[in-house]
Amino acid sequence: MTRQRTIKDTVSIEGVGLQTGKKVVLSLKSSPANSGINFIRTDLPNKPLLNLQSLGMPAPEASPERRTTLSMGPVQVQTTEHLLGALSGLSVDNIVIELDGAELPGLDGSAKGFVDIIKKAGILEQDASRKILKIREPVWLKDGDAFLAVLPDENFRVSYTMSYKNEAIPAQYFDIVVDEKSFEREIAAARTFCLKSEALVLLAMGLGRGVGLNNILIMGRKGPFGNKLRFKNEPVRHKILDLIGDLYLLGMPVRAHVIAIKSGHKLNMELVKKLKGLS
Known about the structure:
Elements: E1 3-7, E2 11-16, E3 23-29, E4 37-41, E5 49-51, E6 62-63, E7 67-72, E8 75-78, H1 81-89, E9 95-99, H2 112-121, E10 123-129, E11 133-134, E12 139-143, E13 146-152, E14 156-162, E15 172-177, H3 180-187, E16 193-195, H4 196-204, E17 217-220, E18 223-224, H5 234-247, E19 254-261, H6 265-276
Parallel strand pairs: 4-9, 11-19, 14-19, 16-17
Antiparallel strand pairs: 1-10, 2-3, 3-9, 4-5, 6-7, 7-8, 12-13, 13-19, 14-15, 17-18
Helix pairs in contact: 1-2, 1-5, 5-6
């Protein structure tokens, strides 16, 4: 039996939101078995709680600003994908996530900072079996030239093909069987990226206020401006990180082979909607 897990100690980290640029303090706390992933907005009256398992249908929607925003009524938690990716990668099922703002801290634009504080807190096995969504039959969907398919598999495997048709970001492919070790070694440190033109559009929309060369890769023809790649194919690895985080909105791990072509948060959310109907 694979047991559920939470963290042992309370840990905190602070930073600024990539889109809002606002400072936020994030605290992670242990939570009982079967309680799931719980966000608490400590800055709002009555400290409202948003529980992933109670979001129901439809699944949370991806915002047009290239991030995943969760909402329940007027309560929002923005840019959740990197923290959820870390929780998925480290197999943490139950946790309380307190934040004193709407957007999670962007840190260095990857999941590495979240992985580090979760490991600092320590991980505790609980006396309850882990709920796992096992895919029995193929599920697929597409949007234009973007495609996602989920096939039965004994492991959690992701195969991603990225093609921007832009010389600044060459076509890239990466395939990985995701477990705790491979996630931390191959995926967690991959950072958010965009083209210079995309960064200018976000700024024009009043977004990207927390973006700097220390937390995002702004890609040019000769590589990222003022930065160096951590992996030769860091962009496609980051797309896999986003996909892993978005899939964890199911509130449980998936045992399947996920094949993605040019998928982003929007199509990821559509897949979550379909898979919620199977869980």
